[in-house]
From TrEMBL:
This is Glucokinase. Pfam families: ROK (PF00480). Keywords: Kinase, Transferase. GO terms for molecular function: kinase activity. Belongs to the ROK (NagC/XylR) family.
């Protein structure tokens, strides 16, 4: 589908969704009828490594660009949804310790939501990227019944993000850090091999979900162990970071070592969802991130393994859904737009 065929013009007032990442921003437009005006990635460089001023200007460029692409007058925009990687407060203030994408000292404690709001002169509604993807998955799956349902999402990437949605709304928490599912510590029985060291997370925890189910967990914890068991593997001679990124390609080809690593990740997420089942008892469990980008047979195997390792009661099994977060890389910007639309409608 070419760009001309995949872009619509607005039929009503709109909100804009902006997904800020370490490399690129992704933008979309959602009109008041619930229709997205683009069905493909629309990206520009995020410039986060250049510091806050450059990054906010890049977000403003993304905003202007998506309006031009969809031929949307600026006067029709009621609000802007923004998501970024965490950790950040509920109002979009980057952690005082920084973050993976915001490691320069000028980012520490920076109010990215407020800065973008001042730059654009429009209300900006903030979520972290895991919450935005979770919100989009929830609303896309339940549609008109979104407000009557709950869900939990695990988003596997460099870390493990996620979100908890109750009655159609993201649970934010007192400090804005609810839904940091990667740092939930899980029982490791049945996940690790008997002689496998307990994995450690960059946050300082031992045995949390991110220490297993993330690219960082593969690099720091899982792959060194499994390469010792498969010393003749093709990845044994590669730098560990290169090998970790290449591992999914091997898993798609049913490589035994790669499947052993990803089975541990899926089991860890199953343990996480078991906690959720006994805590919020959600109607749906969503899985997103890099595994969703994988070959269809592999991502279905991964989802099935997560489901098999989620211990539900019979009553829960009868009503619970397991599904992949839809629309892959667009989920963040679309979730940010949904949050903005909900805010406008709620007044």
């Amino acid at each position: 589908m070419d760009q001309a065929e995949s872009v619509r013009t607005p039929s009503s007032w709109v909100v804009v969704g902006l997904d800020n990442g370490g490399t690129c921003n992704n933008a979309t437009v959602l009109d008041a009828t619930g229709q997205f005006l683009v069905d493909h990635l629309v990206e520009n460089p995020s410039r986060v490594l250049d510091g806050p001023e450059s990054a906010v200007e890049a977000l403003a460029d993304a905003f202007t660009g998506i309006l031009e692409l969809t031929r949307t007058p600026r006067s029709l925009v009621r609000a802007v949804g923004l998501d970024t990687p965490g950790p950040a407060s509920a109002n979009g203030v980057i952690s005082s310790k920084g973050a993976t994408n915001f490691n320069h000292v000028s980012w520490h404690g920076f109010d990215i939501r407020g800065a973008l709001e001042a730059r654009l002169g429009l209300p900006v509604v903030y979520n972290n990227d895991g919450n935005a993807a979770a919100l989009y998955a929830h609303h896309q799956h339940f549609g008109a019944a979104a407000a009557a349902n709950s869900s939990v999402s695990a988003i596997v990437g460099t870390g493990l993000g996620g979100g908890v949605v109750e009655a159609g709304a993201v649970i934010r928490g007192a400090a804005g850090m609810a839904g940091e599912l990667g740092h939930v510590q899980i029982p490791l029985y049945g996940v690790l091999e008997e002689d496998q060291p307990v994995p450690r997370c960059n946050c300082g925890f031992e045995g949390d979900v991110e220490s297993v189910a993330s690219l960082t967990g593969i690099k720091n914890n899982l792959l060194p162990y499994w390469l010792a068991r498969f010393p003749e593997h093709q990845l044994a001679g590669e730098p560990i970071g290169v090998a970790a990124k290449a591992l999914r390609g091997y898993a798609e080809k049913d490589d035994p070592m790669a499947l052993a690593v990803f089975a541990q990740q899926a089991k860890a997420i199953g343990k996480l969802f078991t906690v959720a089942a006994n805590f919020t008892d959600p109607a749906a469990y969503f899985l997103g991130g890099g595994v969703v980008e994988a070959a269809p047979h592999f991502r279905q195997w991964f989802l099935n393994t997560v489901r098999e390792n989620t211990d539900l009661r019979d009553e829960q099994k009868a009503v619970a859904t397991f599904a992949l977060v839809p629309d892959r890389d667009m989920a963040g910007s679309r979730g940010a737009a949904v949050a903005a639309l909900n805010t406008v409608i709620a007044g």
